[in-house]
Amino acid sequence: TKFLAAASHDLRQPLNAARLFTGSLASSDIGAENARYVARIGNSLDALDDLLSVLLNISQLDSGGIIPAVCHFNLQDLLDRIVPDYIQTGQEKGLRVRMVTTSCIIHSDPRLLETILRNFLSNAIRYTRKGGILIGCRTGGNNITIQVIDSGIGIRKNQLDGIFEEFIQVHEDPSVDGRGIGLGLSIVRRISALLEAPIQVKSAFGKGSLFNIILPKGEKNKVIPLFADHAANIALPNSLAGRIIAVIDNDEDVLDGMKALLGKWGSEIIVGLSADIALAQLIEQDKTPDIIIADYHLNGDEDGVEAIREIRAEFSCPIPSIIITSDRDPELEKMLKTKKLPLIHKPVVAAKLHALIRHLI
To answer: 123: domain range?
Structure first.
């Protein structure tokens, strides 16, 4: 719907700005320890974006409108991305969060599975006052069962069936953090059905809980690396030296983030809240952009496609261009393909943006 498209854009704008600033930090000489912190921030931003996608598309989950991107991958790669965040969170509560390493290969959608595992771990930490949490897996036949075990407050037997319903929180302990609204496990239930991956729950009230998800084994010779766009080396300073890049976005924080990131790569950046503003600066400074980066949703009736057309018309040449957007509408993607305009979804990943710019110019 138009409402969801607008909500997606507005909610992802600050997320995109944060991603651009972390990308700029990652390109700086900040030391190994700080680089690890920046990487963890990036992972958390990714998790937030994935959860936001699920929330905005919850009706699509119900109607079957989301198609899983299934692949063969090493489970340990996914756990290494997720679990360190919760080890730190657990330590802040005096809890021990442990992970049993594994060589198992999974055949599923890693992004959707990440949403489920993050929900299991965050709930385990929220509802555990002392002791710890363990995440690991077991193999059996053609399946792999991922388990999250905690020593928390537990769930009464007559309440187990209700925990996957919307807006239901069954805990009775007033000391438990109550900021949740009871949507997490209902989303887990929907994703589980989509992945055809059964969820099992066992719990002893006052002693703890066990959450399982059962997934098919993957094939070793078909494994692909996960999150390769984040693992890639961040571009070296001045790798785009001398290049003039025009950036159009209707959010000043995003423009500041783009200037910080692209500036680290040595390029000269001309920014504007609209095509007219950016174009006026280009004409005044007698500069022709090597590439144009435009947000699709701009102010009023203007969109990124029109902004690119306007700037190209002024310079009478097909300047390479990129559209960035938080809009996941498949029809928009088809339209941009017909116009031969590359698309990057928000929040923008620095390594992916750099690779595309280098490819186009």
So the answer is: 68-224
